[in-house]
Design a protein that fits this description.
By secondary structure, the chain is of the alpha+beta class. The protein has six domains: about 60 residues, Helix Hairpins (Orthogonal Bundle); about 230 residues, DNA ligase/mRNA capping enzyme (D-amino Acid Aminotransferase, Chain A, domain 1); about 90 residues, OB fold (Dihydrolipoamide Acetyltransferase, E2P); about 80 residues, DNA polymerase, domain 1; about 110 residues, DNA polymerase, domain 1 (Orthogonal Bundle); about 70 residues, BRCT domain (Rossmann fold, 3-Layer(aba) Sandwich). Helices cover about 40% and strands about 20% of the residues. The protein is built from 26 helices and 24 strands. The longest helix is centred in the last third of the chain and has 32 residues. The model has no long low-confidence stretch (mean pLDDT about 90). The structure holds 2-(butylsulfanyl)adenosine. The site of 2-(butylsulfanyl)adenosine (IVH) has 15 residues, from strand 3, strand 8 and strand 13.
Length: about 725
C-alpha cells in the first residue's frame, strides 16, 4: 500500500474505532460486533507496525502500552482545581441560595444539579483535539501526571469529536462502578489479599499504579463535569451549555443532571436522587448545585478555594446492623487505648465494614456494648465507622445482652504488657510505656517521618515495622544513627533493593535540614497538630525558649498547688476564707497558655511531654550536632527583625479584625515585644480596632489614644517609626 493510501486507511480505521468505542462505552449502544471491532483494530495495528510514523499517541491502539514509570511527575494546574463548600441541611442550603440571590440581585436562580460522584477529580488537557496530559487534583494547585493511566479508561476520548481547538481542559470524576468494585473485592479475596475498602479507594489505588497495564485491567469509568482552561474556544453563557458541549465532544456526562430553580428545586432534586441512590450502578455521596449562569459565577467569586457559586449537599451518614464478634484495644502513637469492635462484615455507607471504633471506655459504658450484641453501625464519608448503639429489639435480646459479661478496662497494655493508667481529667486510658511499647514506637515513627513532619520519603509503615522488629530503631533518633540505619542494613530488609535503600538514606540525610515548626510537629506531642506546632514555633522562636518555658510552667504549677493546699489547710484550721494570692490567681502554665490556640489542657500535654526525661533525651539527641554524636537536625535561626519592633508599647484590641482572630493578633504583638492589655487607659499606646468596635473605641478617642487598623499594625512592625502614638 502506498504511504498516502496507508495514511488514509489508518485515519478511516481510527475514526471507525473511535466511534465504536464511544457508542459502546459512552452511549451504551454498540454499533459493531466484537469480532468486527477486533478485525478493524488488528488491521490498524498492522498498518502502524508497517508505517511507524502513523502510530500517533491518540490512536485507539495506544490506550495501553506505555512503559511503567518510576514515579509521577508533578504538574501545575493551568487553573486551580477548587473544592466545594458543604451544606448539611436545608437551612444551610437556603443560606447559600440567599447569598447568591443577594449578590446577583435576582429573585430566582437556576442551578445545575448534578450527582456528586464518589471518585477522584482529574484534569484532562486536550491540545488540538488530542489528549496530551491528565493529572490528579492533588492539592488543587499541583497534581500528579497520570496521563498513561487515564489513557486506559475507555470513556475518556483520546481525540475529541468535532472541531479541534488549541487548548481545552476537561474536568471530571474517575470512579469505579459498583460491579467493578465487587469484582476487585472478589479477586483480592481469591488471592488472599486485603480487599479494597470502598469504590473510591479502589479507584484511587487503580489510578496510582505506576504500571498502566495494571490500571487498564481495572474497570474504571469517567464522567465529565466542567471545562477549565481553554484557548480558541468561546465559552457559552451557561454551564448547562458547557455540559452539552462536553457531550458533543464525545464525553460521558451524567444523565441525572437537571436544571432546577431556587432552594425548593434543589431540595426536590436531592430527594429524588436520594431515592434513586440505592439503584444506581455507582456510588454517590450527595449532589452538587452549581450556578448555571457563568457570568454570575465571576461576580460571586471564591472564598478559601471554595467557589461561592456552588455547593455540595451530602447524604446523611448511613447506618446498618451487625453483630459484635469481639472487642479489642488498639494502642495509638501517644499510648491511648481505643476500644475497637470487631464486627461481622456489613456493607454500610458504600463500604464493607468489619471494625468500628467505640472511642473510649466511657462510651463503652454509656452504650453498654458487649461481645455478642447486635449493634447499629454508622459510617459517613471517609470517617472511621462507629458503633452508635446496641439494638435491643425484644425481651429475648434484652436478657441475652444482660447475660453477657460487661467489658472491663484492660489492666495491662495489650501490646507490651505495660502499666495502663487513666490520665487525670481525661477519659482515655493510656499505656505508660512510651517508646518502649512497640505500638507507640511504630505510631510515633510513622508520624515522625510523615510528609508534614520530617518528610522522609520511602520510609513507610512496613519498613519502619521491620526496623523495629530487627531492633535497629528504638526511638526517632535511631533513624539518624548511621551504625543502625544505613544502606547495608536497609538493603538487608524484605522488599528492599540496594537502590531504594540508598534513596531512603538520602531522604533521611535531607530531612536533617528542616523547620522549627515541623520539628515540633514531628515530636508527636499529644494534642499538638500542625497549627499548634506553628504557633509554638512562632511564639517561642527557639527550642531552648520553649523548653525553658515548659520547665518554668511546671514549677509554677507545682508551687501553685502547694500554695493552694496550704491555703485550704489554713482555711480548715481557722474556719476563715483566705484570699488567693497573685501567683495562685495566675492561670496554671501561664507561659504556654500565652500562645494562641493553647488552652489549659493542651498546655498540660505540652509541658508534661517536654519535661518527661525520656522525651527530653530523644529531643536532645535529635538536635545535637553530628560531630558530638547527635542526629544533626537543624533549622534556620529566627530572623533578628522579628522581636522588638513593638517593645515597650501597650495595646488594646477591639472589634472584629479582617483576617486574624484577636488571639492571633495578640500573639503577633507579643512576638514583637508589645504588651496586650484588657482595657483602655491614658497609658495605652494603641487601640487596634476592627469592625464593630464599641465602647473601647469611644474611650480611646476621648483619651486621645492612637487608633490603628490591622494594616497599620503590620506597617508598624515592618517599620516601627512609621506611626507615632500621637499621630
Ligand atoms: S465540581 C468548584 N461536580 O467533589 C468545583 N465536583 O469537593 C469543583 N465531585 O474534587 C468540582 N462530583 O472530586 C464537581 N458533579 C461534580 C462532582 C464533583 C464529584 C467531587 C470532585 C471534587 C470534589 C469537590
Amino acid at each position: 500500500m502506498s504511504k498516502q493510501g496507508a495514511e488514509a486507511r489508518a485515519a478511516k480505521l481510527r475514526q471507525q474505532l473511535e466511534q465504536a468505542n464511544h457508542r459502546y462505552y459512552v452511549l451504551d449502544a454498540p454499533s459493531l460486533s466484537d469480532a468486527e471491532y477486533d478485525r478493524l483494530f488488528s488491521e490498524l495495528q498492522q498498518l502502524e507496525a508497517a508505517h511507524p510514523q502513523l502510530r500517533t499517541p491518540d490512536s485507539p491502539t495506544q490506550r495501553v502500552g506505555a512503559a511503567p514509570s518510576k514515579e509521577f511527575a508533578a504538574v501545575r494546574h493551568l487553573q486551580p482545581m477548587q473544592s466545594l463548600r458543604k451544606c448539611d441541611n436545608a437551612a444551610e442550603l437556603e443560606d447559600f441560595d440567599r447569598r447568591v440571590r443577594e449578590t446577583l440581585v435576582r429573585d430566582n436562580i437556576d442551578y445545575v444539579a448534578e450527582p456528586k460522584l464518589d471518585g477522584l477529580a482529574v484534569s484532562l488537557i486536550y491540545e488540538h483535539g488530542s489528549l496530551v496530559r491528565g493529572a490528579t487534583r492533588g492539592d488543587g494547585s499541583t497534581g500528579e501526571d497520570i496521563t498513561a493511566n487515564l489513557r486506559t479508561i475507555r470513556q475518556i476520548p483520546l481525540r475529541l469529536h468535532g472541531k479541534a481547538v488549541p487548548l481545552l481542559e476537561v474536568r471530571g470524576e474517575v470512579y469505579l462502578p459498583l460491579q467493578g468494585f465487587r469484582r476487585m473485592v472478589d479477586e483480592a479475596l481469591g488471592r488472599g489479599d486485603k480487599p479494597p475498602v470502598n469504590p473510591r479507594n479502589a479507584a484511587a489505588g487503580s489510578l496510582r499504579q505506576l504500571d498502566p497495564t495494571v490500571t487498564a485491567r481495572r474497570p474504571l469509568a469517567f464522567y465529565a463535569y466542567g471545562i477549565g482552561a481553554h484557548e480558541g474556544w468561546t465559552r457559552p453563557p451557561l454551564h448547562s451549555q458547557v455540559l452539552q458541549h462536553l457531550h458533543d465532544c464525545s464525553f460521558p456526562v451524567s444523565e441525572l443532571i437537571e436544571i432546577v430553580q431556587g432552594t425548593p428545586g434543589c431540595l426536590a432534586y436531592f430527594e429524588r436522587i436520594g431515592k434513586l441512590r440505592a439503584k444506581l450502578p455507582f456510588d454517590i455521596d450527595g449532589v452538587v448545585f452549581k450556578l448555571d449562569d457563568l457570568a454570575g459565577r465571576e461576580e460571586l467569586g471564591s472564598v478559601s478555594r471554595e467557589p461561592r457559586w456552588a455547593c455540595a449537599y451530602k447524604f446523611a451518614a448511613e447506618e446498618a446492623q451487625t453483630r459484635v464478634e469481639n472487642i479489642e484495644f488498639q494502642v495509638g502513637r501517644t499510648g491511648t487505648l481505643t476500644p475497637v469492635a470487631r464486627l461481622a462484615v456489613v456493607f454500610v455507607g458504600g463500604a464493607n465494614v468489619s471494625n468500628a471504633t467505640l472511642h473510649n471506655m466511657d462510651e463503652v459504658a454509656r452504650k453498654d456494648v458487649r461481645v455478642g450484641d447486635t449493634v447499629l453501625v454508622r459510617r459517613a464519608g471517609d470517617v472511621i465507622p462507629e458503633v452508635v448503639a446496641v439494638v435491643l429489639a425484644d425481651d429475648a435480646e434484652r436478657s441475652a445482652h444482660a447475660a453477657r459479661p460487661q467489658l472491663l478496662p484492660p489492666s495491662a497494655c495489650p501490646v507490651c504488657g505495660g502499666h495502663v493508667e487513666r490520665i487525670a481529667g481525661e477519659v482515655a486510658l493510656r499505656c505508660t510505656n512510651g517508646l518502649s511499647c512497640r505500638a507507640q514506637l511504630h505510631g510515633a515513627l510513622i508520624h515522625f517521618v510523615s510528609r508534614k513532619a520530617m518528610d522522609i520519603e520511602g520510609l513507610g509503615e512496613k519498613l519502619l515495622a521491620q526496623l523495629i522488629e530487627e531492633a535497629l530503631v528504638r526511638s526517632p533518633a535511631d533513624i539518624y544513627a548511621k551504625e543502625k540505619v544505613n544502606a547495608a542494613t536497609l538493603a538487608g530488609l524484605e522488599r528492599m533493593g540496594e537502590k531504594s535503600a540508598e534513596n531512603v538514606v538520602a531522604a533521611i540525610d535531607r530531612s536533617r535540614a528542616t523547620q522549627f515548626a515541623r520539628f515540633l510537629y514531628a515530636l508527636g506531642i499529644p494534642d499538638v497538630g500542625e497549627s499548634t506546632a506553628a504557633a509554638l514555633a512562632q511564639h517561642f522562636r527557639t527550642l531552648e525558649a520553649l523548653l525553658d518555658a515548659a520547665a518554668r510552667d511546671i514549677l509554677h504549677e507545682k508551687a501553685q498547688k502547694k500554695v493552694a493546699e496550704a491555703r485550704r489547710v489554713e482555711e480548715q484550721q481557722t474556719g476563715k476564707k483566705i484570699k488567693k494570692n497573685a501567683a495562685e490567681r495566675l492561670p496554671p502554665l501561664p507561659e504556654l497558655q500565652a500562645v494562641p490556640d493553647v488552652g489549659p489542657n493542651v498546655a498540660v500535654s505540652i509541658a508534661n511531654f517536654l519535661v518527661e526525661p525520656r522525651n527530653r533525651a530523644v529531643i536532645e539527641a535529635l538536635v545535637a550536632p553530628i560531630e558530638s554524636g547527635g542526629c544533626g537536625i537543624h533549622w534556620p535561626a529566627p530572623t533578628a527583625a522579628a522581636g522588638d519592633a513593638l517593645a515597650g508599647k501597650s495595646f488594646v484590641i477591639t472589634g472584629t479584625l479582617a483576617d486574624l482572630s484577636r488571639e492571633q493578633a495578640a500573639a503577633l504583638i507579643e512576638a514583637q515585644g508589645g504588651r496586650v492589655v484588657g482595657s483602655v487607659s491614658a497609658k495605652t499606646d494603641y487601640l487596634l480596632a476592627g469592625t464593630a468596635a464599641g465602647s473601647k473605641l469611644a474611650k480611646a478617642e476621648k483619651l486621645g489614644v492612637a487608633v490603628i487598623s490591622l494594616e497599620q499594625l503590620r506597617a508598624l512592625i515592618d517599620n516601627p517609626l512609621s506611626l507615632s502614638p500621637s499621630g
